[in-house]
Amino acid sequence: MKAVILAAGMGTRLGTLIPKPLTSIIDETTILDFQVEMLSEALGVDNIIVVVGYKKELIMEKCPQLAFVYNSAYAQTGTGKSLLLALRKVDEDVIWLNGDVFFDRQVLDSLFSSEYSCCLVDRKTCGEEEVKYDLKETGFVRNISKSVQNAKGECLGINIIRRRDLNLFREELERIDSKAYFEKALENLTVSDRLDLLPICVEPYYCREIDYEEDLMDVREHTRRSCVTRRENASKDEDA
C-alpha cells in the first residue's frame, strides 16, 4: 500500500503564512511529523508520497526522506486534482489524507482491516460546511458531500481506495471540475452505484481536521493528555 498526503493548499482559514501541515502541535513537532511517523510505522517511509504546492520548499526541507509530487497549479485547483497527480504514479492500494488531519495511530488499523475501499467517519450532527455522508441499506455509503440531507455524520479526511477500484477512481478524478475536492469523485461514484465505499467509524479513537484555531487548540490538548497518560503508564511499568 502507498500513502498520499495532500499538502499543496494554502490553508488560509487557519491564518498562518506557512503550509498548514507545518503547524506545530507540541514543542517543534508538526502535523506532518505526526502523520509521517504513523504512516512510516505502518507502511514504511518509502511508501509515502506528499503532494506539495504552496511554499513547497518548506515541506521538502522538513521531510527530505519522502517522495514528492508538485502541483504547480495549487492556487487554481482543489484536492481532487492534487490527488490525481499522485495516483497517476501508483498501481496498488492507496490510503490518502488531507495534510491537516491529526489522528490516533489506531485509526489506521481500523481502516486497514477493511477489504473494501473505505472512508473514516464519525457519527454526529453536522453543520453546512462539513463533508457529510448517508448510507444505503447495505451499509455502504450512498452519498458523500456537503449537501447531504439527514446525514449520519462527517467524513474525516482519511480514505483508502483498493487497487481493484483505482482505475475507476482515477477516471472520475479526471472528470471532475479542476477546483473540486476529491470527495466530488467519491460522490459521483457512490450515487451512481459504481463504487462500494465502506464507512469506518472513528470511535473510540481521536481524529480531527485542523481548519480553525479552535481545532488546533483541541488537538494540542488531546496530545498533551496523551503524553501525560503515556508517562503515567511508563512509570507504572517501571514500578512493577
What this model shows, in words?
- There is one protein chain.
- By secondary structure, this protein is an alpha/beta fold.
- The protein has a single domain (2-121, 157-239), classed as Spore Coat Polysaccharide Biosynthesis Protein SpsA, Chain A, CATH 3.90.550.10.
- It has helices spanning 31-43, 56-62, 79-87, 106-112, 163-175, 183-191, 213-239, and strands at 2-7, 24-26, 29-30, 48-52, 67-70, 94-98, 101-103, 117-121, 132-135, 141-145, 153-161, 197-201, 207-209.
- Strands 1, 4, 5, 6, 8, 9, 10, 11 and 12 form a nine-stranded mixed beta sheet that branches.
Query: How many helices does DSSP assign?
Result: 7
Order of helices and strands: EEEHEHEHEEHEEEEHHEEH
Oligomer: single chain
CATH superfamily: Spore Coat Polysaccharide Biosynthesis Protein SpsA, Chain A
Q: In CATH's first tier, which class applies?
A: Alpha Beta
Q: In terms of per-residue confidence, which ranges show pLDDT below 50 for 5 or more consecutive residues?
A: none
Biggest beta-sheet profile? 9 strands, mixed
- Rg to the nearest angstrom? 18 Å
Give me the count of strands: 13
Structural class: alpha/beta
In the residues, how many domains can be counted? 1
Proportion in β-strands: 15-25%
Helix proportion range: 25-40%
Outline of this structure?
This protein is of the alpha/beta class and 240 residues long.
Descriptive terms for the model:
alpha/beta, 240 residues, Spore Coat Polysaccharide Biosynthesis Protein SpsA, Chain A
